[in-house]
Amino acid sequence: MAQHGRSAAPASPCLAMDSDGDLQYDEDSADDDMVYDNDSGNESSGDEVDFDEHRPGPSTAHEVELAAEDAPFQVLSVQEIVDFMVVEINEVNEVAQLPRTTIRILLNHFNWDKEKLLERLYDTDQEQLFLEAHVVSPHITGTASQAPRVNSRVGAVPTEECEICLTVRPSAEMSGLACGHRFCAACWCEYLTTKVMDDGVGQTISCAAHGCDILVDDETVLRLVSEPRVLARYQHLITNSFVECNRYLCWCPTPDCGYALKVPNPDCRPVTCKCGHKFCFACREAWHDPVRCHLIKRWLKKCDDDSETFNWISANTKECPKCSVTIEKDGGCNHMVCKNQSCRADFCWVCLGSWEPHGSSWYSCNRYDEDEARAARDAQEKSRAVLNRYLFYCNRYMNHMQSLKFENKLYASVKEKMEEMQQHNMSWIEVQFLKKAVDILCSCRVTLMYTYVFAYYLRKNNQSAIFEVREPEGPGAMHLRCSQSIWSGTSLRRTWSTSNRKVQDKYRYCEGRRKALLEHVHEGYERDWWVYND
Amino acid sequence: MRRLQKELLNLTTDPPPGVTVDPEEIGDNLSEWTVSVAGPASSLYEGETFRLNFRFSQKYPFDSPEVVFMRPNIPVHPHIYSNGHICLSILTDDWSPALSVASVCLSITSMLSSCKDKKRPPDDAFYVKTCNKNPKKTRWWYHDDTV
Ligand SMILES: [Zn+2]
Ligand SMILES: [Zn+2]
Ligand SMILES: [Zn+2]
Ligand SMILES: [Zn+2]
Ligand SMILES: [Zn+2]
Ligand SMILES: [Zn+2]
């Protein structure tokens, strides 16, 4: 073979590889139970546990994340979002000599894409641009379309009629946008309040005059509205549209979180919010490496549509051998009549053959091996195989998801162990390996969970072989090994120094396998190895 | 409600052509009006008289009024459903507090004037069966105004 180095057949990073071969699947699940039994006695479980509270100064924990996960991103509070918005406006203001209020509206019109706006400002007809963005061109001086109908006699206070309340007001109380439509302050205030509070419009409130689409700028709103409740909502609407329009920003999807994330490139990549939620910037789902966004969307939708019902269907129903309608067995006898009115086939629940030859043997079937029954069952099996394949992956995915929900419990009980160990002459730093182990356990779970999704959609080819899951050799065995190591480690308190090393060795091994798996999948993406099922 | 009083005064003293309102017919709180609109001269509706029902919320004029034609005489028109609902953008999306009962009546009159073919909207039967009683609850997509 002439090829050296990276050959077409990659080194298998198969997670199941276990040189000791000391664990079987059954043992693993028992071990898993042990972990949670251990927790159930802990009353503080379920609460969020803060490991940082004993931490002396800055973190000393070394990074284990993938390089890509370290790429810079920022978590912004609402105030920081507002500041960022101002920075963007100022940046445009420095180049384009336009009022800031106009720039805000223009930027919003271009979904806060500065480059696009600047390009348009220089390349094309500016007046057309202002028209499109619903602002009055700042180059037209003097009041535009409508001159205020001022009613002034010499010496008298000039007055105007407000078209909304139909009362005559001193001109000083009347105001409007550059379009020249003027209304009294009270009417403006009520108009803006209705728009903000009832219609939920912030960035795109238009002039109150009929048929005028000039947009109300933020300074005007701040000047005419004084109620804090309304201003707060306005501020919220403005920041919300800023975040939603901006390609480089997104809200954290955790309900009521309120932080936004900012990235230099809006690609599929992990970001971690201050609330702790780690998600994909591109699709907003929980971080799903190594699966790509479109497949995770498909998977989640499938799970949504199919969960529960699929399990039940598989156990309690069969398809009518004639019309394939799903049938539920609701009585004791084997004689089934299809509920589909246009079919009404009679068949036997056990052999799926037609009922007629069964005669009156209602409860026992002796025709199981007849050709007709066999053919009916073969057809059934084919459709079941598809379902079973899905169930196989889905169950494993769900199990990991379920286990992750116990993460807090696990952390709580590990925290207890750590405190215990600190009372036995170990320093804070020395016991951190335990938390680290749980961190790695969790990230392994997440990776495995999504690897099942990846494997489910993967079409069989030369490269896909390592993802063919064979229990007990499958990747599922890994995290269990990892957790067992942790627990045997903590129980061997007397010989802690050796178990410490052992636990660390184990988790480093697990983390190494996890990374290798991810790298392998990513390499496959780059080299076009993966082909998907439809 | 001060504004409604002024509108009523203006409408009785200086009504737009073809529009009449009988203050006797309007209750004291002014929240519901009946306005008569004559079919515009030299239109397909010349000689007919229609009655419009206006309902105003507390937030009027910041909230648009609810306007429907009243039975029995509902104009046969491509933007008017047989239950009296009117497909007219100023009654929902394009409402402005600077609009008034008079301007709504004028819009409706001009809608009648420009009609060239007396027929119901194509989705009339379906709409009437399924719509909310309040036309403002309908998510209208506005027909071409030139029809
Ligand atoms: Zn006013
Ligand atoms: Zn205007
Ligand atoms: Zn968050
Ligand atoms: Zn994604
Ligand atoms: Zn059937
Ligand atoms: Zn049988």
Provide a short characterization of the protein structure.
The complex is a heterodimer of chains A (534) and B (147). With 534 residues, chain A is mostly helical.
Written overview of the protein:
- The complex is a heterodimer of chains A (534) and B (147).
- Chain A contains 15 helices and 13 strands.
- Chain A has 534 residues and is mainly α.
- Among the domains of chain A are: 12-74, no CATH class; 75-262, Herpes Virus-1 (2-Layer Sandwich), CATH 3.30.40; 320-369, no CATH class.
- Chain A is extended, with a radius of gyration of 33 Å.
- The model of chain A is unreliable at 1-68 and 470-498 (pLDDT under 50).
- Chain B has 147 residues and is of the alpha+beta class.
- Chain B has one domain: Ubiquitin Conjugating Enzyme (Roll).
- In chain B, 22% of the residues lie in helices and 14% in strands.
- Chain B contains 3 helices and 4 strands.
- The relative contact order of chain B is 0.17.
- The model of chain B has no long low-confidence stretch (mean pLDDT 89).
- At the A-B interface, helix 6 of A face helix 1 of B.
- Bound molecules: zinc ion (6 copies).
- The site of one zinc ion has 7 residues of chain A, from loops.
- One zinc ion binds at residues 177, 179, 181, 207, 209, 212, 214 of chain A.
Question: What is the subunit organization of this protein?
Answer: heterodimer
Strand order of the largest sheet of chain B: 1-2-3-4
Rg on CA atoms of chain A, Å: 33 Å
Class computed from helices, strands and strand pairing of chain A? mainly alpha
CATH topology heading of chain B: Ubiquitin Conjugating Enzyme
* Number of domain modules of chain B: 1
Helix content estimate of chain B: 10-25%
Low-confidence stretches of chain B: none
Strand content of chain A: 5-15%
CATH homolog superfamily of the domain at 75-262 in chain A: Zinc/RING finger domain, C3HC4 (zinc finger)
Number of helices of chain B: 3
Mean pLDDT of chain B: 89
CATH architecture of the domain at 75-262 in chain A: 2-Layer Sandwich
The proportion of strand residues of chain B reads 5-15%
Which structural category do the helix and sheet elements of chain B fall into? alpha+beta
CATH secondary-structure class of the domain at 75-262 in chain A = Alpha Beta
How helix-rich are the residues of chain A, as a percent range? 40-55%
Number of helices of chain A: 15
Mean of pLDDT of chain A: 75
Q: What's the CATH superfamily of chain B, by name?
A: Ubiquitin Conjugating Enzyme
